[in-house]
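Explain this one:

_____
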Amino acid sequence: MPTARLAVAFANSGFRVEALCPPGHPVGQTHAASRKHTYQGLTPLRSLARAIAAGKPDLVVPGDDLATRHLHELYRRRELYSGGTTDLGSLIERSLGSPEAFPIVHARTAFMKLAREEGIRVPATEVVKTAEDVKNWIGRIGFPTVLKADGTSGGEGVRMVRTAAEAQNALRKLQAPPLAARALKRALVNQDRTLIWPSLLRHRLTVTAQAFVAGHEATSTIACWKGTVLSSLHFEVLRKGYAAGHATVVRLIENSEISTAVEKVVRRMRLSGLYGFDFMVETSSGNAYLIEVNPRSTQVGHLTLGPGRDLPAALYRAISENPIRVAPTITEHDTIALFPHEWARDPQSEFLRTGYHDVPWDAPELVHACVRRARKESVWYARGDANRELAAATPLKASAESSAAARIAAR
C-alpha cells in the first residue's frame, strides 16, 4: 500500500512512473504507473535489469528493503546484467547515492558506529552470535534490552527481552532461517518468492543487541541528493499496530536534534533518493537517539504537507532542474491516522475522528483493493480483533452514523 501511494505522489509531482512489482500489487489499482513490469521472485536481478532496460529511467526508487538489496546486488554485478546498453552503475549511484554506503545501511552495528563517529547520539549496539555473547551483553547493559536481526523490516526481526531466558530464546528465533510454511505462504498468497531460497539454504541472520532507551518513538523520512537533504518529514509515533510493528498514527513535529542527525548521516554517506530514520526520544531528558536507518521511503513518504515537506516534488526538481510542483497540503492537522493501518488496528479509533485519516479517496480502486487484501490476509494472520473482524466482514451499508470501517468498506 505505501508503495502504491508513493507512485501516485511521484506521478502528481511530474514524473512518468513505471513499476516493477509482483502480480496483483496495489499499484495496479492506481493510474500512476504508465507501465508495469513483472517482478520474478526467483530471478529478481534479471527482472529488475529487464525493467530498467525497457523503461530507461532517470531514477529508480525502491519500495522496500528487499528492493534496495536487489539494487545494491545489481550494482555489484552490473557487468553481468547491463547487456552493453544500460549504464546500470551510474543509474543506481544517481538513485541511491555513494556505493560505499550500500553495505552499511544493511548492517546495524556498522551504521551505529558511523553515526557515533559523526557525534550523533546512539544507544550501545553490538553483534551477538552465541548464547555467551548475549550473556556477556546483559551483564554489561542489563534489562530490558533489544535484539534485532539484520535484513528484516516492519518490526518482524525485533524482540525486546527482559529475562535471560527470553534473550536466549529470542536469539535462536531471530537467527533461524525463514520457516518453510512462511516462505510458502508468501509465495502463494503474496506472489512473493523471496523467502524460498533463504528457507531452503537455511541461511542464518546476523543479530545485534541494542541498549533500550526509555521514551517514545519518532520517525523521519527524507528526500536527499548527493549528500544534501532536500525535504523532510519528522513525526512522533502515537500508535503502532503492535509493540515492534509499524506506526499507525503519527504527529508532525519539528526537532532540531533529529534534523541535525539526519543531515550528518546523509552528508557522511553521500546519500541520494528516499531514506527513513527511526529515533527514540528519551522521556527523562528529551534527547533523541538514532536507532535505525531504512534504505527506502517509509510509509509516510507520500504525504504532501507543504513547502519543504513534499519528498517527490523535491526529487523532481533535483532530477529535472524544473521548478518544484508542490502538491496542495493535504491537511492542517498535525495528527495523521495512516490508512489502512489504524483502521485495521481499531475501526473505532478516536484518531479516525480527531485527526486526519489518510484514505486515498481519489483512488477508490486502491481503497477497495486494500480492504480486500486485508480480508484475505486475515485468514493467514488471524490475530487481533481488527483482523478477525475483517475476516468475517460482510458487505456494509453506510449511514450518517456508520463507523469509519463501514464508511471505508461501503465507499
Observations:
- The mean pLDDT is 85.
